[in-house]
Amino acid sequence: MTVNGADEKPVVVGRGRRAEILAWGEGRVLKLYEAGWPAEAVAGEARNSRRAYELGLPVPAFYGTLEVDGRHGLLFERIDGSPLLQVLLARPWRYASLARAMADAQVALHARAVPEASSYKEMLAWRIRSPRSPLPDDLKEAALALLARLPEGDALCHGDFHFLNVLVPSDPRRGPVVIDWDAPTRGNPLADLARTMLIIRAAPLHARQGLERRLWTMLSKAFGSVYLRHYLARSGRGGTTPRQRAALAAEFADWQTVNAAARLFEGISEEEAWLISLVRKGISG
Q: Tell me: the pLDDT tens digits for 123-133?
């Protein structure tokens, strides 16, 4: 493998479920997908990444596509920093400031309207219906009926906004940077927020039993509380009267239910029983 024409082995600076991140010349990284990953999926992420950068969103600069040894790749600006999750684990006492910074980034995304994009609700419906999902059929039908009643929107929704897809740059003058633009949609901001909060709540399920899980439970609860409160305040969606706040809480709970139903499609074994219980409770509640 060559880097910028030189016969040298590239340095791996990160890994994901379907790609590795390689240092690629001065100030750049290559997101190189595993062999056999569909070219159309990479092309879609390339379009999304370019569009997000052109909109002036807090994202890495995008420089185009490359093919290396038959594998498809995307070339980005290299961000000197760490995923927010790593920063949180290294400095848990900073949870409140990190939660506010991450919430500000999501508010910035939701402030953009993208009426031309595909629908978040349609994506959720497709995942809920999927035979890959272990959700019982009666709960699938109930979740789909609930989803149909929820309001659409045309805000830019990242679709997978969480700890690992937000980078904290080493330069304190630069705010959080959002990565992994493989599935953005248009939708109701509360739908995208509900998925983020669901992932925050699920974090302790990925920790070992015992002290580690108890610590994660406390940290995710504290982080999530600050996150949700700050997001609602900064976005102006928190409501000003008790009736508005109650309506918002009810709608948000419904978005959590349908997002839990859709997340089962992803086959995350640690979360399966918990997600099914959330759907059952949300439908019956």
A: 999 999 999 99
CA 101/CA 40 separation, integer angstroms: 33
Per-residue DSSP letters for 156-174? EE-SS-SGGGEEEESSTTS
Pick among 3.90.1150.10, 3.40.50.1980, 3.40.50.300, 3.30.200.20: CATH of 12-77: 3.30.200.20
Q: Is 64 helix (H, G, I), strand (E, B) or coil?
A: strand
CATH class of 81-284: alpha beta
Q: What are the residue ranges spanned by the domains of the chain?
A: 12-77, 81-284
Does pTM top 0.70 for this prediction?
Answer: yes
In angstroms, the Cα distances linking 160 to 71, 154, 228, 243, 259 are 24, 17, 16, 30, 11
CA 120 from chain centre, in angstroms, equals 13
Q: How far is it, in rounded angstroms, from Cα 121 to Cα 128?
A: 11
- 46-74 residue pLDDT tens: 999 999 999 999 999 999 999 998 999 99
